[in-house]
Amino acid sequence: MYNTVPALSIIFMAISALIGIAIPVVLFLVFRKKRKADVAPFFIGCAVFIVFALLFESFIHNLILATDTGKAILNNIWLYGIYGGLMAGLFEETGRYTAFKTVLRRKRGNNQNALMYGAGHGGFEAVYILSTNMISNIVMSVTLNAGMADKLTAGVTDPAALQRINATIAALAGAAPTDFLVGSVERFSAVALHLSLSVLVWFAAKNGGRHFWLYPLALILHAFINAAAVILSRCTSNLWLLEGAIYLISACYVVIATIVWKKCASDKDVIAPIGAEGEA
Q: How confident is the model at residue 161, as a pLDDT?
């Protein structure tokens, strides 16, 4: 017999799903209308996330984590955090750099395109991670509350898969309603991260490679915040405390990106840098 999911939890799931969709839409409109960025970097940012994070990175994960070494990584939170962080940094920042040096080469004259790219990259991630998960949770919750829980496990014969479904159902029913807002709060810091790292890699790709060092810096910063999120999640069960720590790190990255922008942007750039108008 399964417990039901509180109606308030479902409402907060819906709010989070809408926030995940709204993030890329709002960012696109702001950077297009107010900062005069081009349209192409937004969609290229979406495409790069799909190719480098969802396809390439996932493929390598499947290869490595299936080995004995991978099992050792999975059983050690420090190794898993560092491994996951480095992989995310390597693939996503390399994807950024590749895009800026190739398909966006002719768009590098407008530095606002760094932000537009970040909006696409981080915005698509918000939809993929937040909105799709919340929609799935809503479907499961409504099915559960309608007394049709058996439909969620119908046809599932694999014991491990059945165990995962039952664990998900138990988590949905047992979680505090406000827990379903944590993901939407986390996405704002994640988007700030992607905007900041896009600025660093943007200037790494410009000016004949004079600031190439910003690319490995972005990779290291990306790896650090991802590893910190994984490791800290094992150290505390307070989701809001965890998000507070991630917000602090993201804020530091915004400061770094702003400093880099001011030092590297050409004198012809007349639009304010990231964070100067409180938008990023």
A: 81
Q: Could you tell me the CA-to-CA distances from 110 to 2, 41, 48, 135, 150 in Å, in that order? A: 55, 11, 20, 37, 55
User: pLDDT confidence of 272, banded at 50, 70, 90?
Assistant: very low
Q: Write the single-letter amino acid at 250.
A: S
Exposure of 130 by Cβ count < 10 A (0-12 exposed, 13-18 middle, 19+ buried)? buried
Please tell me the distance from the alpha carbon of residue 163 to that of residue 280, in angstroms, as a whole number.
Answer: 41
Tell me the CB-side half-sphere exposure of residue 40, using CA atoms within 13 A.
Answer: 10
Residues 107, 112: Cα–Cα separation, whole Å: 10
Distance (Å, whole) CA 110 – CA 106: 9
Cα–chain-centroid distance for residue 110?
A: 25
Tokens of 58: 């996932």
Helix (H, G, I), strand (E, B) or coil at 175: coil
